[in-house]
Design goal:
Elements: H1 7-13, H2 26-29, H3 34-48, H4 50-58, H5 66-91, H6 98-108, H7 113-125, H8 129-155, H9 158-188, H10 190-203, H11 214-225, H12 227-242, H13 252-262
Helix pairs in contact: 3-5, 3-11, 4-5, 5-9, 8-9, 8-10, 8-12, 9-10, 11-12, 12-13
The protein binds fe (ii) ion (2 copies).
One fe (ii) ion (FE2) is lined by residues 47, 79, 82, 167, 171.
Length: 263
């Protein structure tokens, strides 16, 4: 499977999320339920954490590839505006949001600096660490997009639904990049396939783990990936992952879902 991603085409499409016609004030008279807000707090924090994920990618050999760095610069830009859009929703509910909330998240995850060091050392020891990171990125974009689609549905709120569908559409382009990079690199190297398979099997956790408290990750998975529709969403992501070279039958999203909903 070789997917194509055209970086020049992506650079033409890159833009801050267009929310100019989103009626955020609708939330003042028709507020969201507490469960939806809890998911949005999580998504807000994780979107704004992209800049830290970017840092951890740039200490690897990924920074040698100008196509990858062009994408990453624009990716972190688009994710930033996803965070800003969600911040506006939180603002209309009198919730902490934006820089004040981000500063609190950064203080909480100070210990995560070890990840940066591990990425740097890992990349120095193995050229395949970049493939692991890009495949990991594909899984995270797949699950993030699915999470937005599910939250739009669960909330039943027309304004939030429209906003989240627009965000999910941009996540689709991020998916195209990560999945095509992963496919190409996995296809080219048995060593990359072995290391990526091992890393995903042993280490993959839902996006936001390690940044958000475990109880919040558990809630998010149960709320968005619970039920029959959540189960088929998780299975669909696992099937997409299984189509990447050397990554068949991992089932990591389904097992994360089962583990969290049983705990
Ligand atoms: Fe995003
Ligand atoms: Fe994304």
């Amino acid at each position: 499977m070789v997917m194509n991603f055209d970086i020049d085409r992506y650079l033409e499409l890159v833009a801050p999320l267009d929310d100019s016609d989103i009626d955020y004030d609708a939330f003042l008279t028709d507020p969201l339920d507490e469960e939806t807000l809890r998911c949005l707090r999580y998504m807000h924090d994780v979107e704004f954490h992209t800049t830290c994920y970017l840092r951890d990618l740039l200490v690897t050999a990924a920074h040698d590839d100008p196509e990858i760095t062009a994408f990453l610069a624009m990716w972190s830009y688009e994710e930033y505006w996803h965070g800003e859009a969600i911040a506006k929703v939180l603002d209309r509910h009198d919730e902490s949001h934006g820089r004040q909330r981000i500063a609190a998240t950064r203080r909480r995850v100070g210990r995560e600096r070890m990840t940066t060091l591990a990425m740097m050392l890992g990349s120095a020891l193995s050229e395949h660490v970049v493939t692991v990171a890009l495949t990991w990125g594909a899984v995270n974009e797949w699950t993030t997009q699915a999470g937005y689609v599910q939250l739009a549905k669960r909330s039943g709120h027309p304004v939030l639904g429209e906003l989240l569908r627009r965000i999910a559409k941009q996540e689709g382009r991020h998916i195209d990049f990560y999945a095509s990079q992963a496919a190409r690199r996995l296809d080219a190297s048995a060593g990359a396939r072995r290391l990526t398979r091992l890393a995903l099997r042993k280490r993959w956790r839902p996006v936001g783990s390690g940044v958000m408290p475990d109880v919040e990750t558990e809630f998010l998975i149960a709320h968005l990936f619970g039920g029959d529709d959540g189960e088929s969403m998780a299975a669909r992501i696992d099937r997409r992952l299984a189509r990447l070279p050397g990554l068949d039958h991992l089932g990591i999203v389904t097992s994360a879902r089962l583990k969290l909903s049983n705990s």
